[in-house]
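step=encode ok
step=design start
structure_in=
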């Protein structure tokens, strides 16, 4: 009996190492530079919404961001003890580390320990995984849930008991509540069972679980459909979208892409070891291909695609590459006498090639904007009591993420603060009331988004149009400071018949430069 236990322990040790080592590597990469010195706009939404009370979050979800509701509630608990940027991103780091371990566990379960080790490590060093490991959004957690559901499917398929299918359905449903796009994973799992020629018994249980997942996610899908204006910024996809996705899945460094694709192709060569009823290619190929392809195809006519929505599909790519490496070791045994070490060295080489990409990604300049820089600018320029006009209202996000820098200012247009109004940026006064408020001012600071300073911008909101009209007609610019992501201008009331230029600034403004009224004309 003791000898049997020793044999089981010895057999389980390589499997444990194969799973734990990728987890540790992903943790190191995720924690590296985690406090990069600023939130960008999407992270700022997470931060300011999660710090609201639960009733206020529930109020918000009725009008916007229902798709992120469960994530906001989770982050509410995470940020309650000590809110900060590191705490904001830690759940994503943990989600990415869990995904790396689950990818490794899939390789172990479907093939052998070294395949799992290679797959997990390859996932961990992929820049796309490292990027979303440091995003204060739900996508890394969704990827972990999808990988967990896939592993549970692999374990449930040969099971005679219904228990594993309950675990599969519960994990899948929770993942879909984190983000509805995870529902596309059902297509991949159905294709996996089809490729494996699963028996009727397995199909029946999977369809029952899939129906339960769909019923759980359906209310979220319907509510988010009513809030579809949130994704109006998405554009139609084309060949360039597929090419970019291929690059981020395999690694954007060109020396990595071709070997990666060749190894993935080798995964389909006959003779790959298998340890269960499902084969590795039958699991990995639908996972990496079907959700992105469907979303890319639909988005040619109805834009819904963004690469972050299919981050969970990335798990299939390193599994295929690792399986291809396994076939290569079998085909060339003399050239690769130490397969495990050779595979780890190859992944280390891939990491060294892509290290500059990972290093650059730790800079706040790699995000669309840096609200910490905006708040620092506001802290330098604004004084308590200064009237401020945010153009448009979403420019208020810096003040919500970093309220200390805006403490004491007079928000001219604000009628109801964001938490109380059930909105992301607050409810503003109507056009008439805003005009009356501005009539009493002899100076006002305008904090504007870059697109709002363009002469071609034509807002739909009457309040936004009133801001533009009153500032252009009744005020003249005194000074301006431009930073990446924001333009701040001080306007003073017009004197006499002086002709004030429109709000749009000159195309040649230097970033960070201060200009005078003479430099404001078009």
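sequence_out=
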């Amino acid at each position: 009996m003791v000898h049997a236990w020793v044999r089981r322990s010895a057999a389980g040790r390589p499997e444990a190492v194969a799973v734990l080592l990728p987890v540790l590597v992903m943790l190191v990469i995720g924690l590296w530079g985690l406090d990069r010195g600023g939130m960008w706009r999407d992270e700022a939404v997470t931060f300011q919404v999660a710090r609201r009370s639960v009733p206020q979050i529930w109020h918000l979800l009725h009008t916007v961001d229902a798709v992120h509701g469960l994530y906001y509630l989770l982050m509410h608990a995470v940020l309650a003890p000590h809110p900060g940027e590191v705490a904001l991103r830690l759940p994503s780091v943990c989600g990415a580390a869990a995904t790396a371990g689950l990818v490794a566990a899939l390789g172990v379960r479907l093939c052998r320990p070294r395949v799992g080790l290679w797959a997990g490590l390859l996932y961990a060093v992929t820049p796309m995984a490292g990027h979303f490991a440091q995003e204060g959004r739900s996508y890394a957690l969704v990827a972990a849930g999808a990988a967990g559901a896939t592993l549970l499917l692999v374990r449930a398929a040969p099971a005679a008991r219904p228990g594993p299918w309950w675990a599969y359905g519960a994990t899948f449903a929770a993942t879909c509540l984190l983000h509805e796009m995870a529902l596309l994973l059902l297509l991949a799992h159905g294709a996996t069972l089809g490729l494996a020629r699963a028996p009727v018994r397995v199909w029946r249980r999977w369809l029952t679980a899939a129906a339960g997942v769909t019923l759980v996610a359906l209310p979220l899908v319907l509510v988010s459909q009513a809030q579809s204006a949130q994704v109006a910024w998405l554009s139609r996809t084309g060949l360039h979208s597929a090419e970019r996705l291929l690059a981020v899945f395999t690694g954007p460094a060109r020396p990595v892409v071709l070997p990666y694709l060749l190894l993935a192709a080798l995964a389909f060569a006959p003779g790959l070891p298998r340890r269960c009823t499902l084969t590795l290619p039958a699991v990995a190929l639908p996972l990496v291909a079907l959700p992105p392809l469907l979303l890319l195809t639909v988005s040619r006519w109805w834009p819904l695609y963004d690469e972050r929505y299919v981050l969970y599909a990335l798990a299939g790519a390193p599994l295929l590459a690792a399986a291809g490496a396994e076939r290569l070791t079998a085909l060339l045994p003399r050239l690769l006498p130490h397969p495990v070490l050779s595979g780890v060295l190859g992944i280390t080489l891939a990491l060294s090639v892509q290290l500059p990409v990972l290093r650059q990604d730790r800079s706040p300049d790699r995000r669309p904007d840096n609200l910490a820089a905006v708040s620092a600018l506001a802290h330098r320029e604004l004084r308590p009591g200064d009237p401020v006009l945010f153009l448009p209202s979403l420019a208020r996000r810096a003040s919500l993420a970093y309220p200390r820098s805006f403490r004491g200012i007079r928000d001219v247009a604000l009628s109801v603060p964001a938490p109380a109004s059930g909105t992301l940026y607050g409810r503003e006064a109507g056009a008439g009331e805003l005009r009356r408020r501005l009539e009493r001012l002899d100076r006002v600071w305008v904090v504007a988004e870059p697109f709002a300073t363009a002469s071609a911008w034509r807002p739909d909101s009457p309040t936004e149009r009133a801001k533009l009209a009153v500032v252009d007609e009744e005020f003249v610019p005194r000074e301006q400071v431009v930073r990446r992501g924001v333009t701040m201008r001080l306007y003073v009331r017009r004197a006499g018949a002086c002709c004030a230029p429109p709000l749009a600034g000159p195309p040649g403004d230097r970033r960070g430069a201060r200009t005078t009224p003479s430099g404001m004309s078009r």
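step=design ok
step=annotate ok -> Residues 240 and 284 are 24 Å apart (CA to CA).
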